[in-house]
Amino acid sequence: MSATDVAGPPEVGVDTSVAPSTRRRVVAASFIGNFVEWFDYAAYGYLAATISTVFFPDTDRTTALLATFVVFAVSFFVRPIGGFVWGHIGDKVGRRNALSLSIVIMSVATFCIALLPTYRAVGLLAPLLLLLVRIVQGFSASGEYAGASAFLVEYAPPGRRGLYASVVPASTASGLLLGSLLAALLSGILSDGQMHSWGWRLPFLLAAPMGLIGRYIRLRLEDTPAFRALEDQEVAPTPAKQMLRANRRPLVLAMGATVLNAVAFYMLLSYMPTYLSEELHFGATESFLTTTVSLAAYIACIFFTGLASDRFGRKKMLITASVLFTVGTVPAFMLLDGAGLLTVIVIQVLLGGMLSLNDGTLPSFLAEQFPTRVRYSGFAISFNMANALFGGTAAFVATLLISWTGSSLSPAWYLAVAALVSLWAVLSSKETSREPLRES
Asked: Which parts of the chain span the membrane according to its record (predicted)?
């Protein structure tokens, strides 16, 4: 079966004669830009334990961690607003312009974290400034994942939208991987005093040069063929309003399908080092090492998942992921308790592989739910609403549930419930992998 057979007829408004070299530049630009954005955004999560002592008053460990994760979660609440703003820019002015601007905002905000004063220096002003910068980061991140996914899907050749869109979660995880490696390196070579004094600032200082590189690459690209094909048509004054009026059902189902990604991504790939060190009493370096290996496995599986979603369909891949998380999460967390380092690594690799089944498919699935004229808005609003409610709060909810119940299995039950929500949404959706992208 050829790629054309899988995809169906050529897509309306899409230039199928785009040069392979152009597509390679699009993939490289999307990967690098998204990598920079999410390295910047994830550095906070990996340094949460250190940040909790730098920016908050000396209280018990759990309270300081909860305060740190509250700041992490609050930055997500601005993301639905950012979804409307970036969706408006992306659908009205262009995907490239939105992505080029978002990377600058993210890089400047992240660099500012490295310059913030500590609680000992300025008191309560320190966490307030941290919160302000995190809100700016959340606003920027709200346009990145959706925009990069729409960009790649609209540039992809017929029958390869899943594979092309899988570049987005792969680059996101690569940014996390670099953050995890840096955190592990710093924890291994610096003393606790050095980490709390200045070591935690180093990852944030990398934001400025990396952001400039990402913006330069993105500005050298043209906008997508699908978007350019609609340039002569009248654009609604507010694309998001048009999307909400005509695409309410796809929006709700897209939000539901994203719940598993929102909870599992941040719980397994961002919160897990804190869980291992604070709840299971692993060393900081060991905790970062296990997550680093899990991230590497996740990245390796992502592209195969994207390719498989083109071959077998989006729904089959997403349903498989939801079922595996529903039945497998609690047993996996039970095995983590009391396990040795090697066993923990194996379990995290398996969980990362399960997550890749969802995340490698989700970008193309979400992009295909909405027509080209409002695709950026539909993707950004649904994805960011789910992440604001369930992703940004995952670490906080996990820590709070453990504190309330006294059980280290509480996060696993929460993740299993999230998988059930996504299973319902995907079962209620229609298969889109073999249909052409809609114009309107």
From this structure: 64-86, 98-116, 162-186, 198-217, 251-268, 288-308, 317-335, 341-358, 379-405, 411-428
